[in-house]
Amino acid sequence: MKQGLAFGLLGPVRAWHDGAELNLGSPQQRLTLATLLLADGRAVPVEEIAAALWGESVPRAARGTIRTYVQRLRRVLETGEADPVIVSTGGGYAVRVPEDAVDLGRFRRDVRAAEAARARGETRAAAELYKSAVEEWDGEPLAGLHGETAEAERARLRRRRLGVVEELAGLELDLGRCPDLVERLAAEAQAEPLRERLHELLMLALYRSGRQAEALAAYDKLRALLAEELGVDPGPTVRELHYRILRADPELLAGPREQPRIAPAAVPVVTPAQLPPDLPAFIGRAAELAALTMPDAPDPSCPAVAVVHGTAGVGKTTFAVRWAHQVAADFPDGQLYVDLRGFEPEEVVVEPREAVWGLLDALGVPTTLRPDRLDALTALYRSVLAEKRCLILLDNARDTAQVLPLLPGNPNCFVLVTSRVELSGLVAATGAHTVALDILSEEDATAFLARRLGRARVAAEPEAVRAIIAACARLPLALAVVCARAAYHPAFSLAAVAEELEAARGGLDAFTGADSRSDVRSVLSWSYRALSVPAARLFRLLSFHPSTSIDLRAAASLAGLPVARAQALFRELTAAHLVAEIAPGRFHTHDLLRAYALELVAAQDSAADQRAVLRRGLEHHLHTAHAAARILSAHQDLPAPGDPDPAVSPRGFASYEQALDWFILEHGVLIGLTQRAATTGFERQAWMLAWMMRHYLDWAGHWRDLETVNRTALRAATDIGDTLGVAYARRGIARIEAHHGRFGPARTLLAESLTGFTVAGDTLARAYTHRQAIGVRQLEGDYAGALEEATAALALFRAAGSAVGEGAGLLGLAANQTRLGRPEDALVSGARALDLLMAAGDLYDLALTLEVLGRACAALGRFAESAGYRERGIELSKSMANRGDFVTSLLHRMVTSALIYLSEARHQAGHHDRANAALREALTRLHDELSEPYLVIGGGDGATEDALRDVLATLAEFLAEPEEGQDWYERAGTVLHKVASTAEELGLGAYLTE
Question: Residue 848 and residue 846: Cα distance in Å, rounded?
Fold first, then answer.
């Protein structure tokens, strides 16, 4: 056994130190350790540990008992000289050990390696790795541990092992190891008598071992068991195998069998159209375009895939985009595009998880309930595409491992991959069609120059044209740069251009071909040296921006230039073909040019200059985010970023829509900058930038990003001892905790924030912390506690002289006065809140206030007034949520909930037709929300999924009916009740049943 700590979960829960087994104590203590190890490094809240230990009967002293278990485990596991094994993380604990220190970690590692080997076509290696993974098991996982959580984990691990056993058996069958397999498969099938796949593999192993009669007997045994236990016959795959064994099909003796097609899941409504624009300058490639064809009859066992490969700068993306536009009409369900950045520096390469996340964004799957694990995200992505016909362009792939998780399971989709390498593993795994792009022919290269520079100019100097083509090695990127230079200086002879090219040899290492003249760096360096000094500096500094596109003001800030001056320099850069203006004031830099610019920065700009550029870029985005956040909300719940550097040009906003659109456009950039700031000595900017994003991320439902930036902010602020920053970051994390129903940790974090703001002497921040606590208490159903928080917030807002804050405090009073049976008081508080918030112009709180007033009026039987308030609130909420980024977000659901209450108020007021209209709209929105594919496939047992599908069918059938009869409203209410009950069971309907 390895030296150091080792752990076992795939059998009895055990631990060793340097080979000697350790005493882990009682079963409950071992279950505590198992719960932490199963989290794979994730921090496990105390509530989750308690649920694992005691289920629903958690004792009052649970927290103290768990603390005792952890202390005892620490004494056993930690030797003193090494890093801590169990660390405290706010409201819970985490085990931090290497993956290979746990048998489950080694199992997962070997399975990943086996899957990668299999994708490369290395069958023997994959089989050995699967075998190694199975050998990690030591009997029943978590043996000796009891409780619902332990049983659920045990069942999950058993299923995972069986899946691997089946994959291993399939590979061994392919390798001809059938006789050795029979006994093992027989034992597995006996242990899992209803698992048809095991019986199928056993039948095939018997048949290939020359034991046809026994294979048929195994089928008869399975059929009898299924009939007795479940009243069903074996599935079609097993029945087909039985039939082929009966007739002694010789094809069964060789090669893997065809996999059955998985039944498709529900489809989303979104129709993406993400292809980059087709460039009019495209030339040639007729033969390659003709060679890139879609199969007439796709293989039902795998997606249709094509790989376009060739050296850097050969025009793979341009070619792929041209072909994609030509066939786009054949894909009515949309076209998806991802730049995988496979050959940029490691820190910017798009990992599969990030790529799948972006694809789900494009397909309209909300962020709020997406799983975190890559395998679960991939399953969701494939289910979304199950019955779709989409074109998927994966650009600049690094290797097969980067691409495989992005392949749909649907053979009607077509995946086009571009890469600088051949991706032979992908070709072997999928049978992908390949198209190799070579450098341009002499004829096409000449036509390229003629299209860019004019036929007459090219025809006038044929020798120079041939020299230019030779110097550029007929590489499209190099030719484009040269053409930009020549076009910008029409008075230059092409002979002079050719001479400069010949003299400017250098070498861009990543793009060197067999022919020394195919070195692109010489072309780029020549083009760079032709720039004016200020334009050359701007070109270099664009590489500091964490995206390939940048707006004018951000670029001007990086360079510390006035906006007008930066705009003039961009004209020079676009003329030299070193950047492209993709929209007014927004510029794009090709990835090869960014890489070249980074090399130039390292060679020409001092460390102090580079740090100043990064600081200016951060300040630009911080101050712009501050301005946008002030537009989204009138509340002064923002730390003051101070005055910007005079060399920085932050953007201003004239409207809510402009501010929201900026956040949507720069979403990814802001997340990246926050993380970069936290690790480069700009911790204060990191936590401030995280806080400026909170309204957008919260309202749009980007919970994953909201948690990421706030945890980054907390680490950054803690590192520099910034009390104020720590307090704000804890408030951000408290919002996440409350969203996930972890109210205890949320309240603790807010209490800690309150202490920090008190130490900092920030009365207004204390008031807003109490205001945030109102929401946590309300979510818990503690309306008396929420009223106390509202009272405290109101007093502090008044002390700070904040009118908009006073409005928010009064809103908190009104909301909870109604819930506590005091609607008359709520109307008084709400009316005053409305006046203050209207004066401030805060849309979000105005919508909430109108909802609260509507609720109070309804409680008093004043239904016409209630309807009026609701109508105004819905109009406001819709104006805020009218963005694709906000579909099924917090704001979207506010509208749905308000429509339900509006229909009730209208009905009570005697406006029956209008009540029906509001309720129909609410039911339609609910159908859209619950029809999202992640709900249909995503969770729970079969009964839950069946219930959801039944509700959706009921909704669709009901909405198809006309609004006829006096009982329509009552029938609609019955349907709504059924929908709300099912949604609440799934954890999605709290806002419907409040």
Answer: 5
Q: Which of 104-113, 336-345, 624-633 has the lowest mean pLDDT?
A: 336-345
- The position carrying tokens 């375009």 is 289
**What are the distances in angstroms from CA 503 to CA 439, 490, 515, 528?**
22, 20, 17, 14
Tokens of 795: 């007093």
Choose among 873, 964, 975, 988: nearest CA to 924.
975
Expressed as residue numbers, the domain containing 327 is 286-436
CA angle 500, 506, 512 (to 5 degrees): 115
Q: Are residues 446 and 518 in the same domain?
A: yes
pLDDT over 90 (residue 396):
no
**Model pTM score:** 0.57
Number of domains comprising the chain: 6
CATH of the domain at 547: 1.10.10.10
- Indicate the SS3 state at residue 490: coil
Domain for residue 552, yes or no?
A: yes
**In whole angstroms, what is the distance from residue 966 CA to residue 418 CA?**
61
Residue 347 falls inside a structural domain: yes
CA distance 744 to 746: 5
Q: Which residues pair with 983 in a beta bridge?
A: none
Structural contact between residues 899 and 871, judged by C-beta atoms closer than 8 angstroms: no
| Tens-place pLDDT, residues 242-268 | 888 888 877 777 554 433 333 334 434
Q: Which residues contact 517 (CB under 8 A, 6 or more apart)?
A: 470, 471, 472, 473
| C-beta of residue 823 within 8 angstroms of C-beta of residue 860 | yes
Query: Do the Cβ atoms of 667 and 886 come closer than 8 Å?
Result: no
Asked if 203 and 220 touch (Cβ cutoff 8 Å), the reply is no
Gap between the Cα atoms of 394 and 405, Å rounded = 12
User: What is the four-CA torsion angle of 936, 938, 943, 946, rounded to 10 degrees?
Assistant: 10
